[in-house]
Write a structure and sequence with these properties.
Elements (H helix, E strand, L loop, with lengths): L2 E2 L1 H8 L3 H10 L6 E2 L5 E4 H15 L4 H12 L1 H20 L1
Helix pairs in contact: 4-5
Length: about 100
């Protein structure tokens, strides 16, 4: 699995480091490891997650709902209906 520094992630996604830290604090980027010198280590899983976040943001999905989506996805079996409803409601908001 590939690893990335905060600088590499910042450049890859064209976002400030503060945004990456904010996403981590919100729980949107879980499991970010640290080096002995406390530098963040991101993985391909984080890259995939950031791609999804950016996709959701481009559609106008609010950050709170993006967070809910990922929380629901952790227990997909019990929350698939919640995800579907969220996406249907968002589609309606976009189309209106």
């Amino acid at each position: 699995m590939n690893t990335y520094t905060i600088k590499e992630m910042r450049e890859k996604f064209n976002v400030p480091s503060s945004t990456l830290r904010y996403y981590e604090d919100m729980g949107l980027l879980p499991g970010v490891e640290r080096t002995e010198t406390n530098q963040r280590i991101y993985t391909d899983i984080h890259v995939d997650r950031l791609n999804a976040i950016h996709c959701f943001k481009r559609t106008g999905l609010p950050m709170a709902q993006i967070r809910d989506f990922f929380e629901y996805a952790e227990d997909l079996h019990n929350h698939i209906d919640d995800i579907i409803l969220m996406m249907e409601n968002h589609e309606k908001d976009i189309l209106c």
